[in-house]
Amino acid sequence: MNIHELASKYEDYTIEMRRYFHMHPELGLQEENTSRKIQEELTALGIPFEVVGCRNVVGRIDGGKPGKRLAIRADIDALPIQEEVEWEAKSTVPGVMHACGHDAHAATLLAAAKCLMEIKEELAGTIYLCFQVAEEISGNGPQDIVAYLESQGGVDRIIGNHVAAPLPVGMAIAMTGTQFAGNCQWKLTIKGRGGHGSRPDQAIDPIRPAAMILNQITMIPSNYFDPFRTLVISPCMIHAGTAYNIIPDTCTIEGNLRYFNLEDLDTVLARMTEIAQHTAAAFGASAELEKIAYCPPVVNDADSAAMAREVIQEIGTGLYELPTPNTGSDDFSFMTSVYPGVYVQFGCMSNEPGTLPAHHNSRFFLNEKGFLPVVEFFVAYAVKYLK
Fold first, then answer.
1. pLDDT tens sequence across 108-132
2. DSSP secondary-structure letter at 221?
3. What percent of the chain clears pLDDT 90, i.e. is strictly above it?
4. How far apart are CA 34 and CA 38, in angstroms?
5. What backbone phi and psi angles, to 5 degrees, belong to 5?
6. At 366, is the secondary structure helix, strand, or coil?
7. How far, in Å, CA of 104 to CA of 111, rounded?
8. Residue 228: CB partners within 8 Å, gap ≥ 6?
9. Residues of the chain with CATH 3.40.630.10
């Protein structure tokens, strides 16, 4: 069996599917058309599937003999960003685009499914094809899929890929240990007392303590932690007021916290709460910190990652070692917290004029030549694992 030739048969299909998903993006927990399209493709392939939770789709391929169980995961949701790159498959949905590559994830797993169906009699075991919703908003997609897999007896290993726009085509990353940081979404509410803009002495302005709190909490990593222990606190939204001459009652700050050590999460949140409450109190205001959602770090199992590196080299892709930790996050971590697994990254850097190799950007763009190696990897890994 020549896996490269097998995957190459479906390269055009991969690109076609990716462009379809790219043109019809849907936000997390709204993936009605995307989920339906995946179900249609699996039905056409003769692959049985279940719709799990809020539109997750899990297909099942049984090999010719019993054996181990392997799950392959692809997330499918888009982002609230207006696409600025003009091309034939530009998003048709105003204000929504696949600016992270989840369209490519869905397409490459569908193409891998086509390949695996052709050779399923040669495999010993079962493959679960996991198409997951709402990765960008922590919408319980992985937890629902894990619950379903557990109801089926669980799996022995789980793998996944995230395309990497900053990484050249022909390169891949498969680290042992922590591949992505953990992420916590937080919201800080400062409560004061509204009033007229001409008489701040008769009000309690929440904006002033909010400004001081914002600056102080971003200094927590450098002031309270070892400089070699990576932590990132990013306030990304601040909201207050309705008019230029009205002192508002409240001000909210929302952001994210990236961390690599589980014990750091509660420590940082406690420090943020302490700083916010004391600073607000100095102005006569109050502050409350809310942990909205979180996911732990993605940790690659040693055996799973070692096999991934072997497969990557066997399909002719180069291995790239990250010089610094990757502070991106992914809720695939909820799956690797239950099952041994590996999350890899394949390069899809684009050099097209007017595009940027930056995820979550309005000019995000992928080189479609980077999709074939992903399909080859999924198929080759399944073959190697389910001997």
1. 999 999 999 999 999 999 999 999 9
2. H
3. 95
4. 6
5. -65, -40
6. coil
7. 10
8. none
9. 3-179+297-385
Tokens (6 digits) for 30: 């709204």
Q: What would the CATH number be for the domain defined by 3-179+297-385?
A: 3.40.630.10
The upper half-sphere exposure of residue 257, i.e. CA atoms within 13 Å in the direction of its Cβ, equals 32
What is the CATH T-level fold of the domain 182-294, as seen in this structure? Alpha-Beta Plaits (3.30.70)
Place of tokens 């306030």: 235
The CATH 3.30.70.360 domain(s) of the chain lie at: 182-294
228 pLDDT exceeds 90?
A: no
Q: Counting runs of H as helices and runs of E as strands, what totals does the chain give?
A: 11, 16
Residue type, 218: T
Cα separation, 326 vs 99, in Å, equals: 18
Alpha-carbon separation of residue 253 from 231, 238, 259 (angstroms): 19, 4, 19
Residue 351's alpha-carbon distances to 19, 316, 354, in angstroms, are: 18, 22, 9
3-class secondary-structure state, position 210: helix
Calculate the alpha carbon distances from 61 to 46, 57, 65, 117, 275 in Å. 9, 13, 11, 7, 53
Mapped onto helix, strand or coil, the DSSP state of residue 203 is coil
